[in-house]
Design goal:
Blueprint lengths: L1 E9 L12 E10 L2 E10 L1 H8 L5 H4 L7 H8 L8 E4 L2 H6 L6 H11 L7
Parallel strand pairs: 3-4
Antiparallel strand pairs: 1-2, 2-3
Length: 121
């Protein structure tokens, strides 16, 4: 598995009646069996604060928001294969079980090495 890019963003409201601004989105583009694939992970924005409170990840200290590496961590825990293009997490238990905190430093390294590349799907 070759990681081509890892990115993310804080979702913003498009309509006043939506709750989009409560979520973050994380994306990873990778090569699997010779094909470019993408994984999109959407999760409740509060989880970023929870990770910091639990001393699991501090985006301010690393300079990289967690949404930039979340999908990469989930892909890594699943050995480069996730049988989905999109994943959604709305409970802290499932979100915390989806990745391995010991992989964070490696994910940060991969993220920084791919930051300036522009992958295509």
């Amino acid at each position: 598995m070759k990681i081509l890019s890892s990115s993310g963003f804080e979702c913003e409201k498009k309509l006043s009646t939506t709750l989009e601004d409560l979520f973050n989105q994380s994306d990873v583009v990778y090569e699997h069996q010779g094909k470019n694939k993408g994984l999109n992970v959407t999760y409740v924005r509060y989880f970023d604060q929870y990770l910091q409170e639990q001393s699991i990840y501090d985006g301010e200290a690393t300079g990289v928001p967690f949404y930039e590496i979340a999908a990469l961590l989930i892909l890594k825990k699943n050995n480069g294969f996730v049988d989905a293009n999109r994943l959604y997490y709305n409970t802290t238990e499932k979100f915390l079980a989806a990745f391995d905190p010991e992989d964070i430093n490696e994910a940060l390294s991969i993220h920084s090495s791919t930051k300036n590349k522009a992958p295509t799907l």
